[in-house]
Structure formats: C-alpha cells, structure tokens
Amino acid sequence: MISISDLELLELIRNPETKEKGYRLLVEMYQKRVYGIIRKMLIIHEDADDITQNTFIKAFKNIENFQGNSSLFTWLYRIATNESLNFLERKKKRYFFSIEDHLETMSGYLDRSGLITGEEIEKRLHKALLKLPDKQRLVFNMRYYEDLSYEQISQITSTSVGALKASYHHAVKKIEIELHTE
C-alpha cells in the first residue's frame, strides 16, 4: 500500500474526478485501526463491524466539514468513539438492559470469543474493563491499548487533560480492585 499524507488524501476526496479513489484509500488506510478501537468498546464483532461502517459513512458525509485542526485519524477516532458510545446507549435503552444483565452477557461473550487469546489474565482484564463506565473504558482503551497521549485523547473527546487523567486513574484503580477480588 502506498503512503499518502492527509493533505493528499483530502485533495483526492475533494476532487470530483478522484473522489471515489480517495474514499477507497481512506478506508484502506484507517479501517483496521478504527475497527480495533470500536471492537475494544463493543466486544462483539458484528456490532463493531456495523459501527465501523457507520463511522466511515458519517466521515464520507461530513468530510467537507473537516477543517484540518487535527489529523484525519484523530477526526475518524472521534467519530468512532462517539458512534460506539451512542450505540451502547441505544442498545441499553432498546433492550432495557439492567447494567448487571449487560455485564453478564458481555462477560459470557468474552468467555466464548476468539477475541481473547486464552490467557486467563487477559480475559480477567477484559471482564474488569466491562464493569467500567463507558467513558472511563474509552479513556483506558485509548491510553493503555492505543498509547495515545492525554493531549491526543483530549482532542478526540473534547475533554480536558485533567479530567482525562482523573478518569484514567479511577479506571486503573477499579481494574486493580476487580483483578485482586477475582
């Protein structure tokens, strides 16, 4: 795959003659990373796949509004995280999940899922993550798995660095407690 800058990609997308090629390149460049982010939040492949598609559809519809204040990936990341959080909220409301039922369902899915390599500690970590509030889990995933700086997370989530640090700290403490009680 050829390497292309955000600026070159945007030029392709904004040119009517190369728009389709630009969109294809955008998907090729970012689909795996976007899917990975969403999968960590939603756990279930089919849900993550649907939300990944929704993310790119939303990006395509709103590419003209992209102002270049961040990288394209940061912009896509913001769309993906918002779509993931909205999906989780809709799912909880639609099925009237109590939080305990939802956690039990997702935890059972982790036991059967190919997502986890089989290492018990990894399964325990994922189960502990499911018990976090969605936004804390999101911040933890961005910091721990994606190795993003607080400044990058702040750009993506429009949240202050101080609030993100506190959220991450609380998430880590909850995970530690959860892992030590199992």
Could you characterize the architecture of this molecule?
The chain is 77% helix and 0% strand. With 182 residues, the protein is mainly α.
**N- to C-terminal separation?**
45 Å
Number of domains: 2
| Radius of gyration, in angstroms, nearest whole number | 18 Å
CATH superfamily of the largest domain: RNA polymerase sigma factor, region 2, helix turn helix motif
Let me know the largest β-sheet.
none
| Topology, number of strands | 0
Estimate percent helicity: over 70%
Return the string of H and E elements.
HHHHHHHHH
Strand content range: under 5%
Tertiary shape? elongated
Question: What class, by secondary structure content?
Answer: mainly alpha
Can you tell me the CATH class of the largest domain? Mainly Alpha
CATH architecture of the largest domain: Orthogonal Bundle
| Total DSSP helices | 9
Write the SSE topology.
Blueprint lengths: L5 H9 L4 H24 L2 H18 L9 H23 L4 H14 L7 H11 L3 H12 L4 H8 L3 H21 L1
Helix pairs in contact: 1-2, 2-3, 2-4, 3-4, 4-8, 5-6, 6-9, 7-9
Question: In summary, what is this structure?
Answer:
Belongs to the sigma-70 factor family. ECF subfamily. By secondary structure, this protein is mainly alpha-helical. It has 9 helices and no strands.
